[in-house]
Fold this protein.
Amino acid sequence: MWIELEYVGLFLASFLAATILPFSSELVLSGILASGGDPLISFTLATLGNWLGGLTSYFIGRMGQLIWIEKYLHIPHHKLKKWQQKVSGNEWWVALFCWVPAIGDLLAVVLGLLKSNFWWSALGMLAGKALRYLVWGLLTLQVISKMEF
């Protein structure tokens, strides 16, 4: 099945925005919707790309070692264990906020670093990112419909 280049770009922009590049994939989504792109395909690809990018950040954190944090950031072991206990059982709620600009990528890395439950982290991250793109997409479509004559 042939996927138009704009959708590939949206997927890549969403993926990269959740990992290393500080830019707004929401603007790419709005541009595609404004140019007549399919809302369902756009929503799905933006969510999937951003979720996979967030999971990449999670796994980067997962490869880290708490001992490195103790050694280089001088955070005592007991404080790290305390944070692990606070996050344990709340992974879904913490991961839900991985969509938030500026702190979301860091939250994903921290969830991985603290070795939080992958499945709850992944589901929470997916829910948060999907909700963000759904709201943004619907607002964009509403603005576009009011602009048409």
The chain has a mean pLDDT of 89. The CA atoms of residues 2 and 65 lie 42 Å apart. The two ends are 34 Å apart (CA to CA).
